[in-house]
Automatic annotation (TrEMBL):
Transmembrane annotation, as ranges: none
Location of the TonB-dependent receptor-like beta-barrel domain: 425-868
Name used for this protein in its record: TonB-dependent receptor
Keywords: Cell outer membrane, Membrane, Receptor, Signal, TonB box
Family the UniProt entry places it in: Belongs to the TonB-dependent receptor family.
Keyword Acetylation: no
One matching Pfam family: Plug
Organism for this UniProt entry: Pseudoalteromonas marina
SUPFAM superfamilies: Porins
Domain of life: Bacteria
Signal peptide as annotated in the record: 1-31
Length: 899
């Protein structure tokens, strides 16, 4: 898509208003500057409050922000016992967590939020999502989490629900040594899980090469003859290929070990004649297992039932091991209080190894009591991110307190998913009595093997410069800056099958894939139905499964922050961004482009746009203030969103593809918030928000073919709206009795509504953008009968979200406890088609208990009970379970020592 946009500066009323206001301030400032008089220092009264550590600091930071933001500090994260950034952020007002990794801000999907690490861009190791999976960031490295919900010119214009900035711990003010060990047990693990051999380094979260595709196989895939070879290929050559694969993947039932974790942090600060040096190093490790009962369905219709049912349905056990480790090394240098440098190095690694053994019902193939099916699949993936960030802060008192900040960063994200396996077994019965089990006896059935690799590299740098002015009754800060980033991605997916029809019938019997493909069998000529082994392979890799993509962003901004009589604060500015993006698919198993150069040029995104923002704060007194923010932003397609190749959604397991003509969404954002900060730390805020979205990026379901997994298309709807109210509060119970001031209640509630108009209207004889994209995907002449609801709520939007926390801190400081509750309203996961209702994820009620005991000043014992209610997670469609998972209650205990 070639979507160059001319400057909107002259066309936007908001832009004009912002520039006019800023120009006026500058003139008034210049006139008043001559009258600057020496200011008397006002008396400062310190008032104690119940908030301790970072909790009080982040509350003060939120109060001093020019734009609407919510901030969670390390002490608050520790109190709730959340282990990573994703889990912690679901406690923030208006935020919900999807798939344990992705944050929905104010009901907008994860593509409508952006993630930064220490205010810098970072890549994502997840090919199915446009943002970084936040479960990658362990809580041990986090100093605070900032969620800015209104756009400011010094942040990325790719902004919808909000911007999440993960701020890691910096060098300590004194010597630090902290060690923590812990273990946990989940009640769902009382059932035995399913395991396979794996590699020797699995405990480290790394494959030792056992699962990797062999050289002989990669050579065959890239040869002119292809995987099946040519007419001269011999049986020995095909035997060699089969035996080069790892077949030691037969599953067995075993008990599950308890989870274990540890972390160590050490740091210090050294004063010298040439300045101050500091260092902080930390490592953490976590290894846990989870056994859950899982159900899922696909191909909703009437096949095999009178009303509506799923043509395919799964019910069985999922066993998953997760290994996470992280390492940080921060180095700091302060020449003096005005000049500081800091180097931050972060390594994050996450391994997930899942085995599922499920009964499989297929309306076309299952005959209960005669022929029943069982499906076994294994998925293994490693996700990792490495980031090095260097930044400097410089203040120049001799130049009227001019300040200059700069930063630069290199980040790399990788995803390696080798050796994916999917196999269907057929269980044979005679008069209802089990006789035997074999590979499914259907000609078109395969044993699927899959190997995926993704590499993302991001280079980013930028600078900010500001100059303050002080006058009689006013303060003004003018600020300019630039942000620049380049992102490159290379990804590939190799998928092939071992056909059941290529194996002689007598060798297909057995219930373990390791036994069927034992060396004694695969080396036997009789194992193959063909004398040359021909037809044993089915190459499932398609054009576009390998692709390269890149984007480049150059941005500059100007903003001003104006205080008047300590009563009014007016902050605003304009950001200009030049954005370019391209995604290029390759032909299967080659380095040749899938499309012509002309076709590639047609889908290049090239945008050059201004984004204005204006914030007005009225400070009633030291405790109360009102904020109003207005801005214009954008949401751009991700690298995969413009590709026609499919990937598998990890939650629903639906196939997802993009639209080459996908366009950016344009948003108008309005926020109004009242804030009340009381001296004791108690606080209350009430916010109203509204968003108008042009061309929102949505999902629509396409019909599956021949019982295959349904397909989802990423496409542009015509328009969307979102509005709501947020209430956030914290209070102790001292108003009842002063002895009750050690107990407190905090929480937040969000009520909102959304609507999206897809733009389907056959009567006007003019195709909307959505209709065009849907017709191209379906190769159809009409789409009016495809989508059930032309108007509905936004995908992923919950109409209500609530968080509550009841806490108590003993007067002697030895005990601390909290009960934490979180719930969200139902949200659409898959929009309905052909008259079927939308598939909705049902409300999930989460109740946790955290207790901390401090035996002395250095030690801490932490006990947590997570998911006390043990509610099942469910996605329903037409009253049927599209996806469901039982969840257990987790008990964890940890001990930490710090000196």
């Amino acid at each position: 898509m070639n979507s160059y946009k001319p400057s909107k500066l002259a066309l936007s009323t908001l832009n004009c208003a912002v520039l006019a206001a800023l120009f006026g301030w500058s003139v008034n400032t210049a006139a008043a500057e001559a009258d600057i008089q020496e200011q008397e220092i006002e008396e400062v009264v310190a008032v104690g409050q119940r908030l301790k550590g970072s909790a009080g600091a982040v509350l003060q930071e939120r109060q001093n922000q020019a734009f609407v933001a919510d901030i969670m500090g390390a002490d608050q994260i520790s109190r709730t016992g959340d282990g990573d950034a994703a889990s912690a952020l679901r406690r923030v007002t208006g935020l919900t967590l999807v798939d344990g990794k992705f944050i929905y801000v104010r009901g907008l999907g994860e593509r409508y939020s952006s993630t930064q690490l220490n205010s810098m861009y970072v890549p994502s190791p997840d090919p199915t999502r446009s943002v970084v999976p936040l479960d990658l960031f362990p809580s041990e490295i986090i100093e605070s989490l900032s969620v800015q919900k209104s756009f400011s010119p010094d942040m990325p214009a790719h902004f919808g629900g909000g911007n999440v900035n993960i701020r890691t711990k910096s060098i300590p003010s004194d010597f630090l040594f902290k060690v923590q060990v812990g273990s946990s047990y989940n009640t769902s693990n009382s059932d035995s899980g399913y395991f396979y051999e794996g590699g020797d380094d699995d405990w480290m979260g790394r494959d030792d090469g056992t699962r990797a595709l062999s050289n002989v196989f990669t050579t065959a895939l890239t040869s002119d003859a292809g995987l099946e070879g040519n007419i001269n290929s011999t049986l020995e050559e095909r035997k060699n290929l089969i035996q080069s694969l790892d077949w030691n993947v037969g599953i067995s039932k075993e008990d599950v070990d308890p989870a274990m974790s540890f972390s160590v942090a050490v740091g210090d600060r050294l004063e010298s004649e040439i300045g101050t040096f500091g260092v902080l190093a930390a490592v953490s490790y976590d290894n846990e297992w989870e056994v859950v009962q899982e159900q899922s369905g696909s191909s909703l219709g009437s096949l095999g039932c009178e009303n509506k049912c799923f043509a395919q349905y799964y019910d069985g056990t999922s066993t998953e091991q997760n290994v996470r480790w992280s390492g940080t090394l921060n180095l700091g240098y302060e020449f003096n209080s005005n000049h500081r440098f800091e180097l931050t190095n972060i390594a994050l690694h996450d391994m997930s190894d899942r085995v599922r053994n499920r009964n499989y019902y297929d309306a076309n193939e299952t005959e209960e009591g005669v022929t029943e099916l069982r499906r076994v699949d294994i998925s293994y993936e490693e996700r990792e991110m490495f980031s090095s960030q260097l930044k400097g802060t410089h203040n120049f008192p001799e130049l009227n307190n001019l300040f200059f900040d700069w930063y630069g960063g290199l980040s790399r994200a990788n995803r390696n998913a080798p050796g994916g396996l999917d196999v269907v077994f057929q269980q044979n019965y005679n008069d209802g009595v089990f006789e035997s089990e074999q590979l499914q006896d259907v000609a078109a059935t395969n044993i699927t093997r899959e190997y995926q690799v993704l590499h993302d590299d991001v280079e980013t740098f930028g600078w900010n410069m500001g100059l303050p002015f002080y006058g009689d009754g006013y303060e003004l800060e003018l600020k300019i800056g630039g942000d620049f980033s380049e992102k490159k991605r290379d990804a590939s997916n190799v998928k092939f099958g071992i056909t059941h029809r290529g194996i002689s019938d007598e060798f297909t019997f057995g219930n373990n894939i390791s036994d069927i493909f034992a060396d004694a069998n695969t080396s036997n000529d009789a194992f193959y139905t063909s004398a040359t082994g021909s037809g044993i392979f089915d190459d499932g890799t398609t054009d576009g499964d390998k692709y390269s993509a890149a984007h480049k962003l150059d941005a500059y901004y100007f903003m001003a922050d104006y205080f008047f009589e300590n009563t009014w604060r007016i902050t605003g500015g304009v950001r200009w961004e030049d954005f370019k993006q391209v995604s290029i698919g390759y032909q299967a198993h080659s380095n040749l482009f899938e499309n012509t150069l002309e076709e590639i040029q047609d889908v290049v995104i090239n945008e050059d746009t201004f984004f204005p923002s204006l914030a007005v704060t009225y400070i009633m007194d030291e405790e109360m203030q009102f904020r109003l923010n207005v801005s214009e932003t954008t949401i751009r397609p991700d690298l995969r969103d413009v590709s026609t190749s499919f990937f598998v959604d990890p939650l629903t397991e639906f196939l997802v593809r993009g639209s080459p003509s996908l366009q950016s969404s344009e948003l108008t954002n309005v926020d109004f918030r009242f804030e009340w900060y009381m001296p004791t730390g108690n606080n209350l805020s009430v916010a109203l928000f509204y968003k108008d979205i042009e061309n929102p990026i949505e999902m629509v379901e396409l019909a599956g073919v021949g019982g295959a997994s349904p397909q989802l298309l990423t496409a542009n709807a015509q328009s969307g709206k979102l509005s709501g109210i947020e209430v956030d509060f914290l209070t102790d119970f001292g108003f009842i009795n002063k002895d009750w001031s050690s107990a407190f209640l905090s929480g937040n509630v969000t009520l909102s509504d959304s609507s999206v108009n897809l733009g389907i209207n056959d009567s006007d004889n003019v195709d909307s953008l959505f209709e065009t994209q849907l017709k191209e995907a379906l190769e159809a002449d009409t789409v009016s009968n495809i989508v059930t609801n032309n108007k509905r709520r936004l995908v992923g939007h919950s109409e209500w979200v609530a968080n509550l926390q009841m806490g108590y801190d003993s007067d002697d400081g030895f005990h601390s406890t909290s009960v934490i509750y979180n719930v969200f309203g139902p949200r659409i996961i898959v929009p309905g088609t052909r008259g079927n209702e939308d598939a909705e994820e049902k409300s999930f009620h989460s109740l946790d208990l955290v207790y901390s005991y401090f035996p002395n000043f250095n030690s801490k014992v932490n006990f947590k009970v997570k998911n006390i209610l043990g509610q099942e997670k469910q996605i329903e469609q037409e009253g049927l379970t599209l996806w469901g998972q039982e969840t257990g209650t987790e008990f964890s205990l940890s001990y930490s020592y710090e000196f």
